Each structure stands twice: as C-alpha cells, then as structure tokens.
Amino acid sequence: xxxxxxxxxxxxxxxxxxxxxxxxxxxxxxxxxxxxxxxxxxxxxxxxxxxxxxxxxxxxxxxxxxxxxxxxxxxxxxxxxxxxxxxxxxxxxxxxxxxxxxxxxxxxxxxxxxxxxxxxxxxxxxxxxxxxxxxxxxxxxxxxxxxxxxxxxxxxxxxxxxxxxxxxxxxxxxxxxxxxxxxxxxxxxxxxxxxxxxxxxxxxxxxxxxxxxxxxxxxxxxxxxxxxxxxxxxxxxxxxxxxxxxxxxxxxxxxxxxxxxxxxxxxxxxxxxxxxxxxxxxxxxxxxxxxxxxxxxxxxxxxxxxxxxxxxxxxxxxxxxxxxxxxxxxxxxxxxxxxxxxxxxxxxxxxxxxxxxxxxxxxxxxxxxxxxxxxxxxxxxxxxxxxxxxxxxxxxxxxxxxxxxxxxxxxxxxxxxxxxxxxxxxxxxxxxxxxxxxxxxxxxxxxxxxxxxx
Length: 454
What we know:
eight-stranded mixed β-sheet; globular; 18% strand; Urease, subunit C, domain 1; 15 helices; 35% helix; TIM Barrel
C-alpha cells in the first residue's frame, strides 16, 4: 500500500502523513516511508487513510433480521418482545441468515473482527449455522457460545441450569485449537442472570476448555443492585479471561477489582443510553484502570457500524465532563478524552478484550494484516487536517474503500468481493417473514406485541 496516511495505533511506531504498508502472505511485514519493494502488487494509497481493522467486542448477530424494530424500546420492552417473545421461533436457517447479513454488514463498514455474543443456542444445529455464517462472511470472529432461549424463563435471572454441554463438542471438533479465523469463547449469563453457583460452574467449564468468557453486568437498576463483580471477587472467580459488558451501574470499587484482576470491558454507548442501562461507564472504567472496548450490541436498536459508536462514546463522556465542571461553576479548560483514545478503544483495546492483542489491533510488523483503507478524497474528509480526529468524528462506512482480513483482500473500490448480495438479502428477508408470521406480527407494522411462540 503506497503513500497512504497511516494511523498505526502503535505507540512506538506512531503515525505517518505519508507511508507504505507491506503485506506478505497474511502478515504485516513493514511500515514506513518509501519501502524498497519492487516485486509486489501495488495499491495506491495516496488518497487513503490506512487503519487497523475495527474490532466489535459484543454483538448479538442473530438479531440482524429483526433490524430496527427496537428503535423506540426500553430494556424491559426489549427483554419482553425479543428475548422472551420471538427466539423460540428461530430455526437454524434463521440463525444462518441473520449471522450472515449481520457479519457482512459489520465487515462492509470496516469491522474486521467481531465477537458474536450468541444466546440463541436452541440446538447444536443452531450453533453450527451461526458458525458457518461467520466463516462464510469472511471476517475474523469470536463465536461466543451462549445459552438457548427456548424457553427463556428457564435460562435467565435466577436460573440454576448450567451452560449447554454442546460447547464441549465445538471445542473438540471445529475449535480444537485457537488458530482459525473464527475462534470459540463462552457467553455466560453471570451473576446478573443466574445464581452464583451456576456462574461458578460455567466459569469452571470455560477454564477447563481454555476459553475466554464474556457476560453482561451492571446494566440498569437491577444490574447495579446485584453487585455481581464484588460477589465474583469474594468468590475468587475474577480473572484476565473475563470480559464484562456494559458495567454502567457497577460501583467504582467493582471496576477497580476488574482492573486489578486483568478483566476487560465492552461499552455499547448508543444502546445503553436508549434502553436505560445507565450512563456509559467509559470514563469511570478509565479512571479505575480499565481500557474499554466498544460494541454495537443490537442492530434491532442502532446501526451496525463502529464509527457512530466511537462518536457517541467520545461525545457522551465529554458531555459528562463538561456538565460536572459547570455544576461546579466553571468551564472545562481541556477535554480529557481524546479522539485518539477512542480510536484505540475500537482497535487495539478491542483486540486485547478478545484476547487477540498480540495478533491484531494495530499496524505493527508481525501482526495479522487486518487493515482498512478509507477514502479521503470525499466531502467529509477533505481537506484532511487532523487524521485521527477526522476518522473518529467525521468518517463513516461510506468511506471504507478497501479491506484486508489476514492479508486477504475482501473489499475493493467500495464493494465486497465474492459476495452474492442478492442471495444474502433474500435469505434475510425470507427469515424475517417466517419469524414475523410465527410471532403474529404483520410485516410492515410496528411490532409491539410478539406473542409467545414456545
């Protein structure tokens, strides 16, 4: 890649106003101006910003065919209408259709790695369909195997049911090692949504299998009252293999416990602000010593790209800082959270959250060549004066011109390669039709009342 503006997100390398990136096989081989290479395929980067691929650390991809229906819903309505209402109607082919279009949506927008938080594991066939879609989409993914939703009443809140045994089959077969483009993790319910005994058993299983775990924690009033991180700490269960999603209403001392034990966090600012999880914990996590990552959460409520997520997380934290200063009768003199920080949340910090910080997340020689090239000869990025700030606050999916995953080009000239778009759209639409019809929702209406389908 010749003569691009290169934002490496590597503190030692720094950024370049004009530099080259050499890809050899699946790896980044070199970064710098005027690399002496004469036998490579050349990509003109002179009108591009070159970045590490973005990393989404928490997305319920199976809900992609329900896109947009929760745009005016609270968290309680989401639980009632989606989590409890429609999941039993999902067939394996619905999971495949949703995961395929959801993963391609993410990839097309510059997300090269996504953690698929999959709590639609109604059967082994549902799991296999979800995984196959991730593999077919071509992005890097962590398939976080969750619980069934059939019936949801048996699996959530004070549930004593243990994590489904099918995760053992997946670990023995498709995921016997951690070297593939798609790898395995466990999405457990944690103390907010199951008993402590169940959580301890689920954690033991994950650690026996050598899998990272991710759990929702501290969302909304109930989540804050649970003090789940404190209870995990008292039980000696916290560790660096754990990711905590949301954390809005966790106490400050709980966030410090997370930091002291090497835990990671995922912030979904747009969904959290809409649904009543509480204020995004971005700044409190940083002050506690935890570098947050970012996630979309659900496209039932928000768009599926991380550019909007970066903007929202950044400006919400700045609003909190400014409001606190004004409450003290003063104006803030300098913004604490910088655009460069938030770009790191969406790249290297996301990679670390997924346990992949040594493989992806920065343009560092020796790492996997997961790269995105943004067109900057556009109205929203010309003239380019402050590259990092422009990426975070002005760029969008429409700027994503070229994408590499593991050194393989998967998007060029603004179009995904080897993607039968019409087939993907048809699969998604047919799946939506089946699910809405089964749930008793007229297609084209506002689906406010999913009937129980179990």
